[in-house]
Design goal:
The chain has five helices and ten strands. By secondary structure, it is α/β, with parallel strands linked by helices.
Length: 212
């Protein structure tokens, strides 16, 4: 089984239940679901349609503040960003706009505007989306192309080494969750691409690309 993040074939079965199998990469420590267990895009969207996140929901705004607040502190005034995987009702971009930044939205299912992927940004956010990627290597490479030198990539996803034991972890039970990252996984990305990495609370990770 080939790791979808680093491409290593040094992988082994990590966990199996009645619905899916999970493999672990011995190189980058990603735990991932093999392709035969992936949902179709249609079935995936049907599950997302049940999400009820709302801009008016103060609890949801507070949840997104976990990523917004540490990223806001490192951005230059007037920075222009992209919220990648914004969902049906974009909210994170609104938080940035309320703080004086500009932020575009992209989502494969709800805001699929290819032109948003043709320019470079000062920052990119990816909140509760990386765990859904079928090909995280390809998607992270896209992030790097979308962010200017010296720009920031802000990610929020639950880290496998900051949770209950895997067999008891609710996160693995969502059929749309395919990739489960650890600190080591993000440290592999830092080293592989020559990035600056910061870990924050509650599964928030910031990368800064290096100036050319």
């Amino acid at each position: 089984m080939t790791c979808p993040l680093c491409g290593s074939v040094a992988t082994e079965l990590f966990y199996r239940n009645s619905r899916r199998e999970f493999f672990q990469c011995l190189e980058c420590d990603l735990v991932f679901v093999p392709p035969e267990f992936h949902l179709s895009l249609k079935a995936e969207k049907e599950r997302y349609d049940f999400h009820s996140h709302s801009l008016m929901d103060s609890g949801y705004r507070n949840f997104l503040n976990r990523l917004f607040q540490p990223l806001e502190k490192v951005l230059p005034p007037g920075a222009h960003g992209l919220d990648f995987g914004c969902g049906r009702e974009p909210t994170l971009s609104v938080l940035f706009e309320e703080a004086g930044f500009t932020c575009d939205n992209y989502d494969l299912h709800y805001f699929n505007d290819p032109s948003a992927l043709e320019i470079q940004y000062d920052f990119l956010t990816c909140s509760e989306t990386m765990e859904h990627f079928q090909n995280p290597h390809e998607e992270f490479g896209r992030f790097l192309r979308l962010v200017k030198p010296g720009g920031w990539i802000g990610i929020m996803t639950q880290l496998r080494d900051e949770t209950p034991p895997f067999e008891k972890w609710f996160y693995k039970d969502d059929a749309t969750h395919l990739c489960f990252f650890s600190r080591k996984s993000f440290q592999w990305l830092e080293k592989q691409y020559g990035l600056k990495l910061e870990f924050h609370l509650d599964g928030v990770v910031l990368f800064q690309t290096l100036e050319k």
